[in-house]
Amino acid sequence: MKRVLSLLCAGLLLLSVFSAGLSESEDDIETVVTVIHAPEQEHPERPDCFPDPEDDFIPLPETENYALNKPVSAGAHTDVYVSKNVNDGKTDTYWESKGFPAEMVIDLQGACTVSTVAVCLNPSSIWEPRTQEIAVLVSTDGENYSEAAPAAKYDFDAATGNRIRIDFEATEASFVKLVFTMNSSSRTGGAQAAEICVY
Ligand SMILES: [Ca+2]
């Protein structure tokens, strides 16, 4: 019994010494916090040797894109490249028609004054340059269309954002129809558009 008590006392002594050492070392720790405020920066900055490729992109209007997420209708599509990809706001999804001519109708769901249509492809440079022939027609009732911009050939190039814009005289429209009649790409037999925007 005496031996047990001795061991217990020795244990308590060791524990108290250890605790004292621990609390002493905690007291020795100095906490140093340096607060660094980042400078006000509204735009990303890049060195001159890395020019922003978007500087050369064809500019699009900054006004509302009336076509975004509106109902669309088109003829047959290729593979998984369905018509609703054409105005989902993403340039990495696209519509591809099966053959020509290919019509794409966008229901603006109400009368809008429109004067620009933009057609975008994926801006990645793996999309090699191509030319597509496109006409723009407008309608207020979805049945009777008039030509806003006659069929013309437009060059798509990743160097300029892989997008084109078609400007025409401002007109009232509830429906905008694009008619594609040619695509120079050897990789497809149809029209291609990642986004069609209407301003
Ligand atoms: Ca898309």
Helix content: 10-25%
- Average residue-wise pLDDT: 89
Determine the number of helices (DSSP H or I, runs of at least 4 residues).
Answer: 1
Radius of gyration: 32 Å
Structure classification: mainly beta
Strand and helix order: HEEEEEEEE
Q: How does CATH name the architecture?
A: Sandwich
Number of domains: 1
Quickly name the level 1 CATH class. Answer: Mainly Beta
How many strands in all? 8
Largest sheet: 6 strands, antiparallel
Classify the fold: give the CATH topology.
Answer: Jelly Rolls
CATH superfamily: Galactose-binding domain-like
Could you say which overall geometry the principal axes of the C-alpha atoms support? elongated
**Range of strand content:** 35-45%
Assembly state of the chains shown? single chain
List cofactors, ions and other ligands: calcium ion
Taking the alpha carbons of the first and last residues, their distance comes to 95 Å
Ranges where pLDDT stays below 50 over 5 or more residues in a row are 17-22
Q: What are the key terms here?
A:
binds calcium ion, six-stranded antiparallel sheet, 8 strands, mainly beta, 37% strand, Jelly Rolls
